[in-house]
Structures are given as structure tokens and as C-alpha cells.
Design brief:
This protein is of the alpha+beta class and 278 residues long. The protein has one domain. It is built from three helices and 19 strands. The strands form four sheets. Strands 2, 3, 4, 5, 6 and 19 form a six-stranded antiparallel beta sheet that branches. Strands 9, 12, 13, 14, 15 and 16 form a six-stranded antiparallel beta sheet that branches. A four-stranded antiparallel beta sheet has the order 11-10-17-18. Strand 3 and strand 4 form a beta hairpin. The chain is globular.
Length: 278
């Protein structure tokens, strides 16, 4: 066997993962798939309603985002879900888990929600009252100096992406401020317009791929004229700030949320379970 051929064989073998590594990767992928299915099953246990409307919001059939966060609590991952009315997102939630610091064989499971509605929301879980938000979850504001909405859906999507890029966001903890990364594509696009919202998309700012701030960009009428509007929805317990073209336009200070049911963000641990799903 020639030296050149031997070298090629050795190099080829060196580039292949070992069977043990393949098995570990396959096992990890299978576990992550089971966790994703678990998150989706938990999201489906919620029914969310607008005010006294007997018809619950529609849960989007698939998660709009799978995420992980390597910066905060170790091995944190989850899935983001949307509940809609007439095609518009009215509530966004995430089901996620992270390793229990005291027992690495367990994962802590937590649920977080934020209202994207202009009306009060109430949620039940498996038939029992879970949480309620007694006021509007967002405050849409016109985007200054924005162009008139385009005439086609594809052009409006391009406009929304361009408008989103004019925003910057950051979180801060213990005096350390971290700039968040805007995902370039919206995690949800409203497919059909309504009387209140002619078009819209939901963007998110992330750490890793963990959503920390939601940015809703919509076409709403202002003085009878369709105009671009934005609204911020925090998805974190950290302090967070939002800028548009260098001007700060929204902020939340950690610990300042009201405890009287008016906070648009609700979150909490719901239990633990084995780190391995059978």
C-alpha cells in the first residue's frame, strides 16, 4: 500500500466520529425531541380567553421557536408558543426547563406568559384557574418617520424586517449590561388582516436563542391613516431596555412589576421531573 493511500485512509478515519460519540449524539437528539414533545403537551393544557369571551384563543399547532440559553442557568432550553384570535397573536408563552442545582438528575420546569392583547386575559390549566391579566398587555405606539405600508404582503414583510433592524435592546443584571441579538426573521407572521390590524409580525431579541424581549410590529390606523406601530413585551425577569434609532423608547426595571394582576408578564416554576424522558 502506498504511503499516500495510507495517509488518505488515516485522515478519512480521523474525520469520522467514534461510534460512542455517535451513540451519545443520537441519544441526546432523541431526548431533546422528547422534551420538545413534552413542552408542546404542557402548552396544550392551557386555555386562554379574552375577557368574558367564551371562545378560547387558538393555540398555534406548532411552537414558533425552540431555544436554549448557555449564559444563564446551565442547560436551559424550551419552546415558545402563541395563542391567536382571528390570526393575530394575543398571548405568547414558553414552557422550559433547566437542571436542578441541588439534584442534577432532575430538571426544573417553568412556564412564562406575556399578553399581547389590548384587553384583559384569563387562563385556565386543565380546567382550573391559572392566571389572569386585568389590563392591556401592550401599548402600541407609532413608529416615527416610517414609510407608508406597501401594497403587497411580501413588500410589507420586507418593510417590517427593515423597521425591526432600527431597534436595539439589552438586558442588565448586577451592573452588567448585555446587548441582545435580533433574530432577522419574525417568529410569527399574521396571515390575514383584521379591522384593527391590517398586517403584523412578531420579532424577538435573544440571548443565545433564548427570547428576552418580544417586538410586535403592526399596521394600525392612526387618525384614519394606516401606519406602522410597535409594541414591546418583556420575556425575562431581568431589567431590559429598548431603543429605536438611538432613542430609548421603552424599559423595564427588574422588580418593578405590579403584584395586583396588572402585570402583563406571568412566570413561575411548576415542578420538577427526571432529566431523562422515557
Amino acid at each position: 500500500m502506498s504511503q499516500a493511500l495510507l495517509t488518505m485512509i488515516v485522515l478519512g478515519l480521523a474525520g469520522q466520529p467514534s461510534p460512542a460519540l455517535k451513540d451519545d449524539a443520537n441519544s441526546e437528539t432523541a431526548q431533546q425531541k422528547k422534551w420538545h414533545e413534552y413542552y408542546q403537551a404542557r402548552a396544550a393544557t392551557y386555555e386562554i380567553r379574552i375577557e368574558d369571551n367564551p371562545q378560547p384563543l387558538a393555540l398555534e399547532p406548532k411552537p414558533v421557536l425552540f431555544w436554549s440559553n448557555p449564559v444563564r442557568i446551565g442547560e436551559t432550553n424550551g419552546a415558545v408558543f402563541l395563542w391567536t384570535h382571528a390570526g393575530r397573536p394575543e398571548a405568547v408563552g414558553t414552557i422550559f426547563s433547566f437542571l436542578d442545582r441541588k439534584n442534577p438528575d432532575l430538571r426544573v420546569v417553568a412556564h412564562s406568559f406575556h399578553s399581547l392583547s389590548l384587553k384583559p386575559l384569563a387562563a385556565t390549566r386543565e380546567g382550573r384557574a391559572s392566571w389572569s391579566i386585568s389590563s392591556a398587555g401592550i401599548e402600541p405606539k407609532p413608529i416615527t418617520d416610517s414609510p407608508p405600508p406597501a401594497g403587497t404582503a411580501s413588500l410589507r414583510l420586507a418593510q417590517m424586517r427593515e423597521l425591526a433592524r432600527d431597534f436595539k435592546a439589552s438586558t442588565s443584571q448586577d451592573g452588567i449590561e448585555r446587548e441582545l441579538r435580533l433574530l432577522p426573521q419574525p417568529i410569527f407572521r399574521q396571515e390575514e388582516g383584521s379591522r384593527e390590524v391590517l398586517d403584523g409580525s412578531l420579532f424577538t431579541f435573544v440571548t443565545g436563542t433564548d427570547p428576552e424581549l418580544m417586538l410586535l410590529i403592526e399596521i394600525r390606523e392612526s387618525s384614519g391613516v394606516p401606519r406602522w406601530h410597535y409594541a414591546a413585551a418583556r420575556f425575562t425577569d431581568l431589567s431590559v431596555r429598548l431603543w429605536n434609532k438611538q432613542a430609548e423608547v421603552w424599559s423595564y426595571v427588574r422588580g418593578s412589576a405590579a403584584s395586583d394582576g396588572t402585570s402583563a408578564y406571568v412566570t413561575g416554576r411548576v415542578g420538577t421531573r427526571s432529566s431523562t424522558i422515557e
